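[Meeting: bench + compute handoff]

Bench side (C.D.) handed over the final construct sequence. Compute side (W.E.) agreed to return the predicted structure before the next meeting so the bench team could plan truncations. Sequence as handed over:
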Amino acid sequence: MGALAIGNRQSQIVNSMNIRTYTTSWCPDCRQAKRFLEEHQLPYEEIDIEADLRAAKFVKQANDGKQKAPTFDVDGRIFSYSPFNAQSLKEELAL
């Protein structure tokens, strides 16, 4: 299998991921995370935990009682990067 075929397959896998990011409007780490996703052309759903109380509760439960932002849900895998770490997110998403 050629490099182009491998690259296309990886692109298809990445584009089929269901990415949700739980953010706040004032969070610089959240802005960096969104910029990262956009630069890598990854579609995502943004959920503002200040506006959605259920989402805020979910984030706290997922982070041992801490309201960490950004928190990600990628195909059911929950993790957060606060502070934001582009390299770790890149590895988590297998980019």
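W.E. noted at the follow-up: The beta strands are 19-23, 45-48, 71-74, 77-80. C.D. will use this when planning the next construct.
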